[in-house]
Write a structure and sequence with these properties.
single chain, alpha/beta, D-Amino Acid Oxidase, Chain A, domain 2, 9-stranded mixed β-sheet, 6-stranded mixed β-sheet, binds flavin-adenine dinucleotide, DAO, D-amino-acid oxidase, FAD
C-alpha cells in the first residue's frame, strides 16, 4: 500500500467531488483513520452546494426512511456545530406553511419540538403551518470552514477533473461528484433540478418560512444574519446556471408576500444552481469485487440536510 494523502494507517481512499457531500465524506473517512485524497474539479464556492440556502429540510430526496435517518444524524451534527460561530451554522425557529391540512408532516419524526403554528406565527393569508427550530447552514461560511477542517484532518485536496473512476489511484474510491456522478458510473437516472435564489439584506428577521406548495410556486425565506436567502424554483431538466432577472422578480414578489418586512430590503447577490436530482439517493457499494467503489450522490434538494448521515454510511461501506 503506497501513501496517498495524510492521516492514519487505514486504507488509501480517493473521494471524487468537493461539494458538501464529498467534503463531509472525506472528513469522516480521515477521522476514521483512512488516508484520504479528495479530487475536486471546482473549488467549494463554485459548487451547487454553495448556492444552497441552506435550511435543514428533506426537500426532493428519497427514499423517505433513509432520508429521515440520514437527516437525523445530520441535524444532531449541525446542532453541535451551531455552538461555534465560525462554522456558519445557526439554529433558527421557523414555519413550514401548509396549503392543505397536514397534521403529521412526513419529516416531523426526525425533528424534536414540532408543533402546529399559532395564527401569529403564520404568514399573511396562510391558514396552517408547522413550527419548529432547524439548523440553517450559511454555505458561504460553512463550506470554507469545512474545507479547512478537511485539510487539517490530513486530507490531500487535488484540484482536478476525474475522467474515469478506473484511473483514480487508491484502495477504495468514493464517487460524490453530485450531478457528474451518474456519468462517471454509467448511471443515467440523474436529472438536474435547477434552482434560483436571490439574497437580500437581513432586516432583522428571527425566523425562516418555507412554502413548498404556494399557489405561485415554491417559496422560502431563510435569514442568515448577514443576508436573507429568498427562493426559489425547481425546474427539472433545465441546465442553465445564470440567474434570470424575470425569475428573480417573481421570487422576490413571492418572498415579500410571505414576509412583508422584506419589502425594502436591497438585493445583495443572486445565484442559480443545479440540484443533483435522482429518483432515490444512491448510497451503495457498486463494485463489491476487487476494490470498493462507493456511490454517494443524487441528494436532490437536501444535500446539506443529509450530508453527515450519508458520510457515516459511506465510512461503514468503505
Ligand atoms: C437553489 C438551491 C437551493 C438549495 N437549498 C438547499 C437547502 O436549503 N438545504 C439542503 O440541504 N440542500 C439544498 N440544496 C441542494 C444542495 O445544494 C445539493 O443537494 C448539494 O449541494 C449536493 O451536494 P454535492 O456535494 O453532491 O454536489 P455539488 O455541490 O454539485 O458538488 C459536486 C462536486 O463534484 C465535483 N466534480 C464534478 N465532476 C467531477 C469530476 N469529474 N472530477 C472531480 N470532481 C468533480 C465538483 O467540482 C464539486 O466539487 C439547494 C440547491 C439549490 C440549487
Amino acid at each position: 500500500m503506497s501513501t496517498v494523502g495524510g492521516g492514519g494507517p487505514g486504507l488509501r481512499v480517493a473521494v471524487v467531488g468537493g461539494g458538501v457531500i464529498g467534503l463531509t465524506c472525506a472528513l469522516e473517512l480521515a477521522r476514521t483513520g483512512h488516508r484520504v485524497r479528495l479530487h475536486a474539479a471546482d473549488p467549494p464556492e463554485a459548487t451547487t452546494s454553495a448556492v444552497a440556502a441552506a435550511l435543514w429540510f428533506p426537500y426532493r430526496a428519497a427514499p423517505a426512511d433513509a432520508v429521515l435517518r440520514w437527516g437525523a444524524v445530520s441535524r444532531t451534527a449541525f446542532t453541535a456545530l451551531a455552538g461555534d460561530p465560525v462554522t456558519g451554522v445557526t439554529l433558527r425557529p421557523g414555519t413550514v406553511v401548509h396549503r392543505t391540512p397536514e397534521p403529521d408532516p412526513w419529516w416531523a419524526p426526525g425533528v424534536p419540538g414540532v408543533r402546529p403554528a399559532t395564527p401569529a406565527e403564520l404568514p399573511p393569508g396562510v391558514a396552517a403551518g408547522t413550527r419548529c427550530t432547524l439548523p440553517v447552514v450559511d454555505t458561504g461560511r460553512y463550506l470554507p470552514w469545512l474545507a479547512d477542517v478537511v485539510r487539517s484532518a490530513g486530507v490531500e485536496v487535488v484540484r482536478e477533473r476525474v475522467a474515469r473512476v478506473e484511473d483514480v489511484p487508491g484502495d477504495a474510491v468514493v464517487v460524490a461528484a453530485g450531478l457528474a456522478s451518474g456519468p462517471l458510473l454509467g448511471d443515467g437516472t440523474g436529472v438536474p433540478v435547477q434552482g434560483q435564489v436571490v439574497r437580500v439584506a437581513d432586516p432583522g428577521l428571527t425566523g425562516w418560512v418555507l412554502d413548498e406548495d404556494g399557489p405561485a410556486g415554491l417559496t422560502y425565506v431563510v435569514p442568515r444574519g448577514r443576508d436573507v436567502v429568498c427562493g426559489g424554483t425547481a425546474v427539472e431538466g433545465a441546465t442553465g446556471t445564470d440567474p434570470d432577472p424575470d425569475v428573480e422578480a417573481a421570487v422576490l414578489a413571492r418572498a415579500r408576500a410571505l414576509v412583508p418586512e422584506l419589502r425594502h430590503a436591497p438585493v445583495l447577490s443572486r445565484a442559480a444552481g443545479l440540484r443533483p436530482g435522482r429518483p432515490t439517493v444512491r448510497l451503495e457499494r457498486v463494485e463489491p469485487a476487487g476494490r470498493p467503489v462507493v456511490a454517494c450522490y443524487g441528494h436532490g434538494g437536501a444535500g446539506v440536510t443529509l450530508s453527515w448521515g450519508c458520510a457515516a454510511d459511506v465510512v461503514a461501506l468503505v
